[in-house]
Amino acid sequence: xxxxxxxxxxxxxxxxxxxxxxxxxxxxxxxxxxxxxxxxxxxxxxxxxxxxxxxxxxxxxxxxxxxxxxxxxxxxxxxxxxxxxxxxxxxxxxxxxxxxxxxxxxxxxxxxxxxxxxxxxxxxxxxxxxxxxxxxxxxxxxxxxxxxxxxxxxxxxxxxxxxxxxxxxxxxxxxxxxxxxxxxxxxxxxxxxxxxxxxxxxxxxxxxxxxxxxxxxxxxxxxxxxxxxxxxxxxxxxxxxxxxxxxxxxxxxxxxxxxxxxxxxxxxxxxxxxxxxxxxxxxxxxxxxxxxxxxxxxxxxxxxxxxxxxxxxxxxxxxxxxxxxxxxxxxxxxxxxxxxxxxxxxxxxxxxxxxxxxxxxxxxxxxxxxxxxxxxxxxxxxxxxxxxxxxxxxxxxxxxxxxxxxxxxxxxxxxxxxxxxxxxxxxxxxxxxxxxxxxxxxxxxxxxxxxxxxxxxxxxx
Length: 461
Hints:
This protein is α+β, with helices and mostly antiparallel strands. 44% of the residues lie in helices and 22% in strands.
C-alpha cells in the first residue's frame, strides 16, 4: 500500500503542481480539439449552440453574438461542442424540430435547416468531425516547431560511447565509438531515435548498420525485454539494447574495478587509468540503480584534464569522441519538418505499442488512466517548462489519435458512418446508429474503468 499512500501524500503536498498542471494541460488540449470542430463548423455555415470545457453543470459562461454559449462545466475531464439540430453533444441523434417561444415543438424553417449540422452534405460533416483530432496533430506540430525554432531540438549523436557487458549489444558485436547509421533500413539521425525504436521493439530482432573506423558493418541484435517500475509502482515494458550514448564521461569515484582489478578512490582510478588510455577496457561502474561492467575505449586526447585539478573534467573519464545532448536551433521550415517527423514517429510508436497489447506481446496493464497521466504531468512540471511543453505535444498527439479510433461516439466512429453513407448513397438507419452509439459508449466506459482501476491496482500492488 506504500506506493498509493506515497502518491496521495505527494499529490496532497503538491496539489497545485500535480492537479493544476494536469487540468491546465488537459483544458488547453480540449479547447484546441473542440475549437477545431467549432471553427470548421462555422466555416461550413453550421450554427454552434454550445462550446463547453468540461461536462455536467455549468460553472460560468457567456453568450456570443452568434448565439454560441461558451462555458466551463463542473467535470473538467473533456469538453464538447453542440451543433444546431443535434439532440446531444455527441451528435448521436438529430431532430428537424425546434421549440418556439412557448417551448412547443415546431418544424424547422428553411433558414434554420440551412444552419443545422445534420442537413449539411456528408463531406462537410466529415470535415467538421475530422477537424477536432486533426487540429490536435497540427497543434503538436506547431508546439514542437516553436520549441525547436526558439530553444532548440535535443540532439545526441547516434553513437555508442560504451557497451554493457552481457547485453544484447555486447552479444551482437557492438564496439565503443560505433556510429549507428540505420536500424531495419530506417536512417538514424539521433541517439534518441535508437532509444525510441529499441524501446518499442521489445525483444524483436533488429538489423543494425554501423560505421566503425571508416567501414560499414551490419549485424543483428535482439534487445532484451525488461519491465520497469517507476516510483509510484506503474510498470512498463521496454526493449534494452545495452549501449550508452555520448555524455560527459564517467565519474571516477563511481569506478569500482578496471579489467577485473579492484580500485578505490578517484586518485587510484586516475593513476591506474592514465597509462591505459586508448585501449579497450572493461570497467565495473556503480550507476546508482545497478552495478554494470561496461566496455570502453577512452581516448587520450579527449582526457586532457585528467591530471589537471583545475580542469573541468578532472574527476571524469571522457569515453566518447562526441559531445552529449545538445540543443540545435532550426529555421522555421526546418523546425516544422522536424516537428512533423517527430509527430509521425510518436504516432507510429503508439500504434506499434497498441498492436503489441492486442497481440499479447505487451501487457494491457500498461494502459494508463487519469491517475497515471496526472502523475506524469506533475513530474514533467517539476522537470521544467521544456519537459511540460514536450509532454503537452505528446498528449495532444495521443488525444487526436484516440479520437480517430473507429468507435461510435468518438470522432472516428462518426467518420466511419459518414464513409458508409457516402458509399451507399444514404445515411445508416437511425436504429442501427443508436445501437452502435450505445455499444461505443459501453466500450469507452469499459476502457476508462479498466485503465483507471489498473492504475489503482498497480499502486496498491
